[in-house]
Amino acid sequence: MKLKQTYSYLSDQLKKADFLPLLLIRLTLAYGFYTPARMKWNDINAIGEWFGTIGIPAPYFNACLAAGTEALGVVLLILGLGTRLISIPLMITMIVAIVTVHWANGFEAGENGYEIPMYYLLMLFTLLILGPGKASLDELIRKKN
């Protein structure tokens, strides 16, 4: 009986922190997209050239599109604003990255494989389905309406 009560008590206490997983997913993704977005914008012409060499159509346009999506994603994920909406183009960016860059290298992250982009894709899919969580501007706006 004591074990059941202890478990129930601990479960109730953990429910108080149910906002944390989605917040941490958002912040982790924002952190993960920050450096690639900054790197792309620092030399967008080189990124466009590289995109061309790996067969991405309209490489300069798509370099700007990817960099802009990632940069906007950083801001919106931190704020928890438009989370479901920004998750879609970020997921597309991850799928393109997996197919064009990482797939041929296999799964392992250390071999520049698709492991990390796949994790990002799964986290973005989670945000698309569940939303940003309680600690977000999306939730604040929803409550005001």
From TrEMBL:
Protein keywords: Cell membrane, Membrane, Transmembrane, Transmembrane helix
Keyword Cell cycle belongs to the record: no
CC terms in the record's Gene Ontology section: plasma membrane
Transmembrane segments: 20-39, 59-79, 86-104, 116-137
Source domain of life: Bacteria
Membrane topology, record value: Multi-pass membrane protein
UniProt xrefs under InterPro entries: DoxX (IPR032808), DoxX-like_oxidoreductase (IPR051907)
UniProt subcellular location: Cell membrane
Aminoacyl-tRNA synthetase is among the record's keywords: no
Pfam families xref list: DoxX
Protein family according to the UniProt entry: Belongs to the DoxX family.
Protein name: Putative oxidoreductase
Species assigned in the record: Pedobacter cryoconitis
Highest classification ranks of the organism: Bacteria, Pseudomonadati, Bacteroidota, Sphingobacteriia, Sphingobacteriales
